[in-house]
Design brief:
heterodimer; A: 111 residues; mainly beta; six-stranded mixed beta sheet; five-stranded antiparallel beta sheet; 0% helix; B: 112 residues; seven-stranded mixed beta sheet; 61% strand; globular
């Protein structure tokens, strides 16, 4: 059974801290891994990774994929209260063009 | 903004009534998806479409049907709504430079 597991389930940090969110997967016919940020609305796309070892970066956020060990991490440096959200990881497959989502990590950044 | 709208945005209905949710896209994407999101379960795929009249089931398709008669519209129907179908429903398209997914604003459905 295809599955995507995110950890931790929730996290509370202070502004300025650095956080690392984890996503591991067991999916047949892996195509891509995607990260989303969800505030109190629809998920918004952050990154898509397809190749191992190549870091994607956008401002204070960065992500990397390890296809051998079947996981990805999302790093957020110098956290701000606006980073408070649920972060979702999804894996896309070549079979049926489906995406499997983890249950998310809820991040709370306190001033 | 990936040009995706959903209607209605909120709906309250009674058990046993039929409900249809609409997803509309303006950018001619081939793939469209319906998900439900529930606490503790994350986003789960209900059905998806890979073209007009081409649809397939996802992991939680029981009790739902879909139709796609035009590229821009993907309809999700609950033939006889049950309380277990109370959820937030998101439509998504697959597009962008790397074929990533983009989501519509969501529909909050409450079945009483």
């Amino acid at each position: 059974e295809d599955k995507v597991v995110q950890s931790p389930l929730s996290l509370v940090v202070h502004e300025g801290d650095t956080v690392t969110l984890n996503c591991s997967y067991e999916v047949t016919n892996f195509r891509s891994l995607l990260w989303y940020k969800q505030e109190k609305k629809a998920p918004t796309f952050l990154f898509m990774l397809t190749s191992s070892g190549i870091e994607k970066k956008s401002g204070r956020l960065s992500s990397i994929l390890d296809k051998k060990e079947l996981f990805s991490i999302l790093n957020i440096t110098a956290t701000q209260t606006g980073d408070s959200a649920i972060y979702l990881c999804a894996v896309g497959t070549n079979t049926g063009n489906q995406f499997y989502f983890g249950t998310g990590t809820s991040l709370t950044v306190i001033p | 903004d990936a040009g995706i709208t959903q209607s209605p945005r909120h709906k309250v209905t009674e058990t046993g009534t039929p409900v249809t949710l609409r997803c509309h896209q303006t950018e001619n994407h081939r793939y469209m998806y319906w998900y439900r999101q529930d606490p503790g379960h994350g986003l789960r795929l209900i059905h998806y479409s890979y073209g007009v009249k081409d649809t397939d089931k996802g992991e939680v398709s029981d009790g739902y049907s879909v139709s796609r008669s035009k590229t821009e519209d993907f309809l999700l129907t609950l033939e006889s709504a049950t309380s277990s179908q109370t959820s937030v429903y998101f439509c998504a398209i697959r597009g962008g430079p790397s074929y990533e997914q983009y989501f519509g604003p969501g529909t909050r459905l409450t079945v009483t």
